[in-house]
Design brief:
Layout: E1 3-7, E2 10-13, E3 18-25, E4 34-39, E5 46-51, E6 57-59, E7 67-72, E8 77-82, E9 91-97, E10 102-103, E11 107-112
Parallel strand pairs: 2-11
Antiparallel strand pairs: 1-3, 3-8, 4-5, 4-9, 5-6, 7-8, 9-10, 9-11
Length: 113
């Protein structure tokens, strides 16, 4: 059974940083593309960042240059380093393994202005 468990969310002031982690189990992690999504109140869930098997990356325009996605194939973990956080980054952040159609439970990120 594939499971994804996020951690690292919290409350931070604008301009601050947080690092989210997503630990995967039950799958061959290194073979999988991994995504981070977020959903703010009243908004659709949006793709924030993607990292492929070869560690190629994609970012939505609103976070490019501030967020960094990375992976550790030994620890079966994907990370999202978030710097220079803005109020509009406030959302529940979800880890996703699209090839298995599995989602984590989400972790709340709140940025105070």
């Amino acid at each position: 059974q594939v499971q994804l468990v996020e951690s690292g969310g919290g409350l931070v002031q604008a301009g601050g940083s947080l690092r989210l982690s997503c630990a995967a189990s039950g799958m061959i992690f290194s073979f999988n593309t991994m995504n981070w999504y977020r959903q703010a109140p009243g908004k659709w869930r949006e793709l924030v960042a993607t990292i492929g098997r070869g560690s190629n990356t994609y970012y939505v325009d609103s976070v490019r240059g501030r967020f960094t996605i990375s992976r550790d194939n030994v620890k079966n973990t994907v990370y999202l380093q978030m710097n220079n956080l803005k109020f509009e980054d406030t959302a529940v952040y979800y880890c996703n393994a699209p090839q298995n159609n599995v989602w984590g439970q989400g972790t709340q990120v709140t940025v105070s202005s």
